[in-house]
Amino acid sequence: MSEIASLEERSAWFTADRFGLFVHWGVYAAAARHEWVRAREKLTEEQYEPYFEHFDPDLHDPVKWAEDAWNAGMRYFVITTKHHDGFCLFDSELTDYKAASTPYGRDLIGPMVEAFRARGFKVGFYYSLIDWHHPEFPVDLYHPQRDDADYIKATEGRDVTAYADYLHGQVRELLTNYGRIDLMWFDFSYEGRGFNAKGPKEWRSAELMAMCRELQPHILINNRLGLGIGQGPDTADFTTPEQVQPPGHENEFAGSAVPWEACQTLNGSWGYDRDNLDWKPPGMLVRMLLDTVSKGGNMLLNVGPTGRGEFDPRARDALAGVGEWMRLHEPAIRGAGRSSFVPPADCRYTQRGNRLYLHILSWPMKHLHLAGLAGKVAYARFLHDHSEVKRVEYNPANPFHNHLKGLPEGTLTLSLPTVAPAVEVPVVELI
Ligand code: H79
Questions:
Q1: What angle do CA 75, 131, 56 make, to 5 degrees?
Q2: How many CB atoms lie within 10 A of CB 158?
Q3: Assigned domain for 22 exists
Q4: Nearest residue by C-alpha to atom 26 in ligand 1
Q5: Helices and strands (DSSP H and E) totals, the chain
Q6: Is 341 among the domain residues?
Q7: Which atom number of ligand 1 is nearest to the Cα of residue 24?
Q8: Residue 197 falls within a domain, yes or no?
């Protein structure tokens, strides 16, 4: 096997980038009601077939996707090469259940990888371990036909080893045919959960991971193969909390710090969901991003493109909103991470080198008191316009400091304008 660099070296780009685009796209975009629609509604293969038969994303232009994502401030992207329904966007030789066999008639992954790479993105592949289409995938509690006794009886002899051969073969294709791939995102393991549960034994995860590292020695691999985490090349490189803001930094495994990435949706669904009204406003997305970085993590934010291959206007508006904040606040996110200083209430700190960024989530009247920062800050300014923010270092002996009485020594006080700057979250840069 080729030499594998340390996790710290391999993950340097990942933890610096901080913000990525997730794309969930497949024939479920035509159903337009969640990527789990086949399992939720217990649709049979025949009932699901029209979405494949009519799949024709005639407006698809990956250069536009890359442009929208870049302007949002994202610097890596992860695309669903295959989701749980088994449909492949890539031109696999191991199946006909792929974009090349739909009316669209060609590979979607090659041009996408090319467009994102050319724009400057790192490239990651999502690959579903679950597969509801493959003839040897044993029915389990997540399967669309999980309650169909006749179907279960008729499929009893399915051989999960034969399925694992297929899965390994497809991952080999993905990591051989598209040049340098920076990240693999497997989804997911559920050993011990119900009948025909599947995990590292069924996926043959150890063997699969060794193959990934041999084909792409620099690659980062997520934690859903059911192996260990952060303990060398036989284990995962980062963790993947899903649709939550972890309360803490969530990255200590066996005493060592491991990168982590919160994956998040714009509206609660990963696939295009036409009638869903749960859209997060840009201000919430910005707060999720900075909260994640303040805890040392990454955010992978998802778009579910339409059946015609576009980001719909609601998704584009959300990305543009985040992008406007990122344009002005990138130094507080990119290359930044956790700080050991403790922020005041309703604030977060991120830190990049010896610069500290104070993110103010709720605007206070006049003052913010920063514990432990007296004597440590030479200059303070708003990040969005570089205008100075006045500082006072509290001194109990100074009679003009009576209004600050009671603050612990070592406190630095900021004097703020009455009206909050017109940005989603104002940030003070402490230099
Ligand atoms: O690909 C995205 C999801 O489809 C997949 N992981 C992300 C990245 C995923 N989401 N949830 N899960 C995997 C775990 C399964 C959750 C379930 Fe359900 C709860 C399956 C059935 C009940 C949510 C609600 C999905 C369908 C109904």
A1: 65
A2: 15
A3: yes
A4: 36
A5: 13, 16
A6: no
A7: 1
A8: yes
One-letter amino acid of 70: W
**CA 418 distance to own-chain centroid:** 36
| Atom of ligand 1 lying closest to residue 39 CA | 26
Same domain, 188 and 235: yes
Q: pLDDT by residue (tens digit) across 31-48?
A: 999 999 999 999 999 999
Percent above pLDDT 70 for the chain: 99
Q: Domains in the chain: how many in total?
A: 2
| Residue 101 CB partners (closer than 8 Å, separation 6+) | none
- Work out the average pLDDT over 195-202: 98
Atom 3 of ligand 1: nearest residue by CA position: 270
Alpha-carbon distance of 236 to 227, in angstroms, equals 7
How far is ligand 1, taken at its centre, from the CA of residue 343, in Å? Answer: 35
**Is the predicted ipTM greater than 0.90, yes or no?**
yes
Mean pLDDT calculated for residue range 129-153: 98
Distance 223 CA to ligand 1 centre (A): 16
Q: Would you say how long the chain is, in residues?
A: 431
> Which tens digits make up the pLDDT trace of 242-283?
999 998 876 777 677 899 999 999 999 999 999 999 999 999
